[in-house]
TrEMBL record:
CDD domains: AKR_BsYcsN_EcYdhF-like. Signal peptide: none annotated. It comes from Succinivibrio dextrinosolvens DSM 3072. Coiled coil: none annotated. This is Predicted oxidoreductase. GO terms for molecular function: oxidoreductase activity.
């Protein structure tokens, strides 16, 4: 496993992150085993959100921490808030001070912990007031409930606007990125060209994060489209799987590890969030840091996924 410095306190964070959105599919023993497998393979970072299964994911994690308190000390715990779901009402985005503080207190209670190491704002709220968010962050940090703060799915202008009200740096931006989901990269190759991929839909978020030392947390690293499916082994991507299998064989690795290594090869502060509930997949994913991709191999994979270079 490889590690990067993360957050205000510059903690040592694994480049592979265990995402816990799907743990409601497991029982307590299964979740405990999953976390232990992650820990034993060098993964020390957990990602969750208050909206995952309407809080059930956090509650299950809390049960595991209560049963095995030593596990809490083994991980950097990150949760997300801002997606507001209430029974009988529409789902909206809410970055109000009241909601942020209420959400964090609820998350801490469900997870049976006294603080979270990182809090991300979950998707952008067009009605956000930076000063109000800053007040919420200051209060949560002063109370020892949150150590670092970040965002999810924000573009550079949204981050710039948010920073006008913050006393803390943005630690991370969690965005969708995989070999088969590359809009953030495509536009950089087709500058000033008359084609669809030349339209920059993200405002240069990867470059912005590099410039400002913001950790890029890639989610859906094994998926194509918006949760359309896993590309490894998919008949929709025969050329990509041919290249993944060849490189995996050459490096005594697996296609899964190679696919995650492709994400981590990007020269920013990178983390890859995996969402598996299978222990053997966690072990495979952790080995991504052992895969050494050359520039040629990185571009070969990019092109094999159906992308193009001018």
């Amino acid at each position: 496993m490889k590690y990067i410095e993360f957050g205000c306190n510059r903690v040592k964070a694994s480049q592979v992150v265990l995402g816990l959105m799907r743990i409601p599919e497991l029982d307590i023993q299964g979740i405990d085993a999953l976390l232990n497998t992650a820990r034993d393979n060098g993964i020390n970072f957990l990602d969750i959100a208050d909206c995952y299964s309407a809080g059930k994911a956090e509650s299950l994690l809390g049960e595991v921490f209560k049963k095995n308190p030593s596990l809490r000390d083994s991980f950097i715990v990150q949760s997300k808030c801002g997606i507001k779901k209430e029974p009988g009402k529409l789902t909206i985005f809410d970055f109000s001070k009241e909601h942020i503080i209420e959400a964090v207190n609820g998350s801490l209670k469900r997870m049976n912990i006294d603080h979270m190491d990182s809090l991300l704002l979950h998707r952008p709220d067009a009605l956000m007031e930076p000063d109000e968010i800053g007040e919420a962050f200051n209060q949560l940090h002063a109370e020892g409930k949150v150590l670092s703060f970040g965002v999810s799915n924000m573009n550079p202008m949204q981050m710039k606007l948010l920073k006008t009200g913050l006393d803390f740096p943005i630690a991370a931006n969690q965005v969708q990125l995989s070999i088969c989901h590359t809009p953030m990269l495509n536009a950089s190759y087709t500058v000033n060209m008359d084609c669809d991929s030349a339209v920059m839909r993200d405002g240069g978020v990867l470059e912005y994060c590099r410039l400002h030392k913001i950790v890029v947390q890639a989610w859906s690293v094994m998926q194509y489209g918006f949760f359309k499916g896993v590309f490894v082994g998919s008949p929709n991507y025969p050329k990509l799987n041919e290249v993944l299998n060849r490189i995996a064989k050459e490096q005594n690795s697996t296609p899964t590890a190679v696919a995650i290594a492709w994400v981590l090869r990007y020269p920013a502060l990178m983390q890859a969030v995996i969402g598996t509930t299978k222990q053997h997949r966690v072990e495979e994913s952790a080995k991504a840091c052992e895969v050494k991709l050359s520039k040629y191999e990185w571009y070969e994979l990019y092109l094999a996924a159906g992308n193009f270079l001018p």
